[in-house]
């Protein structure tokens, strides 16, 4: 039985079961951050209705389902833009513009998990979400609006070109300057070309290896993705070119061996070689923010105030939105490539023909991402 005297204590117990400390000082993982966000939303919604978790019925869960699809009143619940703000900020809202059925279903799954745990632990008599269909259907008009909002989170062509110019203009007079500049270029190229999450950049070069398919060599990256899972992604030629460029800057061979311990994004370049510790997630966030804000300032100096303001609101995740948007515009889907090769071991790609792997790589080649 759960020894909890309030919803707050019960929710904290659920977080603890998942290894999450919502009150801790350490930055949460993306998954933990998503759980905290969804639970915050449902607790605020229940409080707004004058209810506790123990008051919720199946009818209330249905009402929350409708609310997740279209939070109302919008002025109370939805931000005017996609800028991330601290909760103490007067313009903070629980939701950003552009809801999707997928996001609403995710919120319902988190609620179902929470209520299921509380029922199993004896805090609730039953889980009311278990009686509700958690799938969400939306009209074409609403989905189109959500898609348009996602496009609004993507970088414009001017924004991306400004980032490249800013990085190209970084100093390189010393060995450390050259390392910092090369690392920034490598990080942004990976994020922009592959559309991966920034958390996937903490692997090692040994995870990038060739595999022979029908007597042809294809380079693939076995990278860690959301939830600690791994997927195998065939690398487009532009990424292979940039990888060789970066490795040569580090004083390494062009191609990594299977036991190469060097991080994909090293923390530093030591005097006697490359630091074998990867750049932390917090440091990666700092690197991307510093470059984006620097590029934004340059745009402002050039009189591009509107583009500058839009870029200033962007984050590393905007590069993921950009990749998805541009691929969709080209008639391709990054999700298709990711799901098709979402295997746990590079060797499992042997089941694919060379033509299939080349097709998957061509999905990522439809955009001209050369620097």
TrEMBL record:
Residues 150-365 form the Tyr recombinase domain. It holds the Pfam family Phage_integrase. Residues 296-330 are annotated as: Disordered. Residues 298-312 have a biased composition (Basic and acidic residues). Gene3D superfamilies: 1.10.150.130, Intergrase catalytic core (1.10.443.10). Keywords: DNA integration, DNA recombination, DNA-binding. InterPro entries: DNA_brk_join_enz, Integrase-like_cat_sf, Integrase_catalytic, Integrase_recombinase_N, Tyrosine_recombinase_XerCD. GO terms for biological process: DNA integration; DNA recombination. Transmembrane segments: none annotated. Coiled coil: none annotated. GO terms for molecular function: DNA binding. Belongs to the 'phage' integrase family. PANTHER family: INTEGRASE_RECOMBINASE PROTEIN MJ0367-RELATED, PHAGE INTEGRASE-RELATED. This is Tyr recombinase domain-containing protein. The lineage of its organism: Bacteria, Pseudomonadati, Pseudomonadota, Gammaproteobacteria, Chromatiales.
């Amino acid at each position: 039985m759960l020894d909890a005297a309030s919803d707050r204590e019960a929710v904290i117990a659920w977080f603890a079961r998942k290894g999450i400390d919502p009150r801790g000082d350490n930055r949460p993982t993306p998954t933990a951050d998503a759980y905290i966000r969804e639970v915050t939303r449902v607790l605020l919604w229940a409080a707004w209705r004058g209810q506790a978790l123990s008051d919720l019925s199946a009818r209330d869960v249905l009402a929350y389902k409708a609310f997740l699809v279209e939070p109302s009143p919008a002025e109370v619940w939805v931000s005017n833009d996609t800028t991330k703000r601290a909760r103490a900020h007067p313009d903070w809202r629980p939701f950003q513009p552009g809801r999707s059925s997928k996001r609403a279903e995710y919120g319902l799954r988190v609620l179902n998990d929470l209520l299921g745990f509380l029922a199993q632990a004896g805090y609730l008599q039953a889980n009311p979400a278990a009686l509700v269909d958690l799938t969400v259907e939306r009209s074409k008009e609403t989905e189109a609006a959500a898609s348009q909002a996602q496009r609004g989170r993507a970088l414009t062509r001017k924004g991306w070109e400004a980032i490249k110019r800013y990085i190209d203009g970084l100093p390189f007079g010393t060995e450390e300057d050259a390392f910092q500049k090369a690392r920034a270029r490598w990080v942004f190229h990976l994020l922009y070309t592959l559309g991966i999450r920034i958390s996937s950049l903490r692997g090692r070069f040994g995870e990038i290896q060739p595999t022979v398919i029908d007597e042809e060599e294809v380079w693939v990256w076995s990278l860690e993705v959301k939830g600690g899972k791994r997927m195998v992604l065939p690398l487009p030629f532009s990424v292979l070119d940039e990888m060789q460029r970066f490795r040569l800057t580090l004083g390494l061979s062009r191609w990594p061996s299977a036991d190469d311990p060097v991080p994909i994004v090293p923390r530093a370049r030591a005097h006697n070689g490359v630091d074998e510790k990867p750049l932390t997630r917090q440091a990666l966030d700092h690197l991307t923010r510093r470059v984006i804000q620097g590029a934004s300032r340059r745009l402002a100096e050039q009189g591009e105030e509107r583009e500058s303001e839009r870029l200033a609101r962007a984050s590393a995740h905007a590069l993921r939105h950009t990749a998805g948007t541009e691929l969709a515009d080209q008639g391709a889907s990054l999700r298709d490539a990711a799901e098709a090769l979402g295997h746990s071991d590079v060797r499992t790609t042997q089941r694919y023909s060379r033509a299939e792997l080349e097709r998957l790589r061509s999905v990522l080649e439809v955009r001209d991402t050369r620097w």
